[in-house]
Design brief:
Layout: E1 9-11, H1 19-22, E2 30-37, H2 43-53, E3 62-66, E4 71-75, E5 82-84, E6 103-108, E7 111-117, H3 123-140, H4 160-163, H5 166-173, E8 205-212, H6 213-222, H7 227-246, E9 256-263, E10 277-280, E11 283-284, H8 292-306, H9 309-324, H10 333-348, E12 354-361, H11 366-369, E13 372-378, E14 387-394, E15 397-404, H12 410-421, E16 427-430
Parallel strand pairs: 5-6, 9-12, 12-14
Antiparallel strand pairs: 1-4, 2-7, 2-13, 3-4, 6-7, 8-15, 8-16, 9-10, 9-11, 14-15
Helix pairs in contact: 2-3, 5-9, 7-8, 7-12
């Protein structure tokens, strides 16, 4: 990118290619990040902050266009908008009603939220964008300096690595080290999925548990597990019990599986601000476990064999095959979308019972921390899983948010109740 000229359009990154095909009112492919401040939000200053930082993130200020063979992102110069928050988070984003933009900045009381279409980025990129917005907002209120370490400098020119397809970059770097082709992204396993009835379209409810990171680490350590492994095991245990409630005949029980996104920047350092995440899916046969420790042991064994460079490279290669296959890339986009939607429904989302996405501990410069009360991460609704979990840590607390498309709260109640039984204090907040 030249210093004085942004790109007029961008190819969708490798992961983003599926989202225009699967996006719907039931599965909007939107996730939410929010930061609650100590003072009530001033919408005038919030809009000014957004307008100030937006030139630094040209790859987010785009609209989705349909080409002959692929969708693409075209630069959008329409007026930026901010929105009062709505009762139901992670709503489908209609570009026509949003001046073409694929994200929304929302505000309510003391909270600023970013809801963003997954076609643009993953949790890492979205949070860097939100951090920049919060910083600029506080700067306009004369509460922090213009430049702070750990915050993207809005006066800098965007680097090419920020908007390049990091998956294709890795493939090129590792072209001499690629393992033999082995399909890893899709399967034909019979996996349990909740039969709870869905709420009306657009009704999405959230329960967040606020827990001391120190307390959670202490109980996780008893099982020799990371926080993600420990919470994933509790989630799987809840799903095993939910299946027992919904399917009385144990002979008809399926395996349970949980999708765990992996931030690939930890394996291949990059400045990428678009999608650069994969996922692993531990699968548990309920008949082979008798307690939480058994589930954790299986997750740890699964991670040991699947979070290897060889396996991740195989997944990257497989993930990129849709974009690089000589035959597929010349199929018209409408036919591609039908194929992608079919694969997602039959061999994609059907392969896991739930999702837990841990963004890890997010940090702000000390000058900003005193103005921030809490953070939150809510994955979007899914008609397949019906209940998903987002985890993020900040300032000695961890925030565990369950978003659900059903009235039933069994999974989140089970997980939080088990934590309390283990001696962990849990403060609950709900949109109910």
């Amino acid at each position: 990118m030249s210093k004085n000229k942004s790109l007029n359009w961008y190819k969708l990154d490798t992961s983003a290619k599926i989202y225009p095909a699967i996006e719907s009112s039931r599965d909007p492919a939107v996730f939410r990040l929010s930061v609650s401040l100590t003072d009530k939000i001033n919408p005038t200053f919030l809009l000014k902050a957004l307008e100030t930082i937006s030139p630094r993130f040209p790859y987010y200020n785009v609209t989705l266009k349909k080409g002959l063979f692929w969708n693409y992102l075209q630069q959008n110069t329409n007026q930026l908008l901010i929105w009062p928050d709505s009762p139901s988070p992670c709503e489908r984003i209609y570009p026509l009603l949003n001046n073409g933009y694929l994200y929304k900045i929302k505000y309510f009381n003391k909270t600023i939220a970013l809801e963003i279409f997954h076609v643009l980025t993953d949790g890492f990129g979205a949070f860097e964008f939100l951090k920049s917005l919060i910083h600029q907002y506080l700067f306009l209120l004369n509460k922090v300096p213009l430049k702070l370490p750990g915050i993207i400098d809005i006066l800098e020119v965007p680097k090419e690595d920020e908007y390049k397809d990091a998956f294709l970059t890795v493939l090129e770097q590792e072209k001499d080290n690629l393992p033999e082709k082995k399909r890893t992204l899709f399967g034909n396993n019979k996996i349990f999925q909740s039969s709870c009835k869905l709420l009306p379209k657009g009704d999405y409810r959230v329960i967040t548990g606020i827990i001391s990171i120190t307390d959670l680490k202490k109980v996780s350590k008893k099982y020799n597990a990371t926080i993600t492994e420990f919470l994933a095991a509790l989630y799987l245990e809840a799903l095993i019990h939910l299946q027992a409630l919904q399917i009385k005949n144990t002979k008809k029980h399926y395996d349970v599986a949980i999708q765990i996104p992996i931030n690939m920047r930890k394996h291949y350092p990059t400045k990428c601000m678009r999608n650069f995440s994969l996922f692993v899916i531990p699968i548990i046969n309920p008949q082979t476990v008798s307690n939480l420790g058994d589930i954790i042991a299986k997750i740890k064994a699964f991670n040991k064999s699947n979070l290897t460079k060889t396996h991740l490279l195989t997944m990257i290669d497989d993930n990129c095959s849709l974009a690089t296959h000589k035959f597929i890339k010349h199929i018209p986009v409408d036919l591609k979308n039908l194929f992608i939607s079919y694969i997602n429904n039959t061999k994609g989302s059907s392969q896991f019972s739930g999702t837990i996405s841990n963004l890890g501990n997010v940090s702000f410069p000390p000058q900003m921390v005193s103005h921030i009360k809490k953070v939150s991460f809510v994955p979007g609704p899914s008609p397949h899983e019906k209940c998903t979990c987002g985890v993020v840590g900040f300032n000695n607390n961890i925030y565990i948010s369950f978003g659900r498309s059903t009235k039933d709260t069994f999974v989140e109640k089970y997980l939080f109740t088990q934590l309390v039984r283990m001696g962990v204090q849990v403060k609950l907040e709900s949109t109910l």
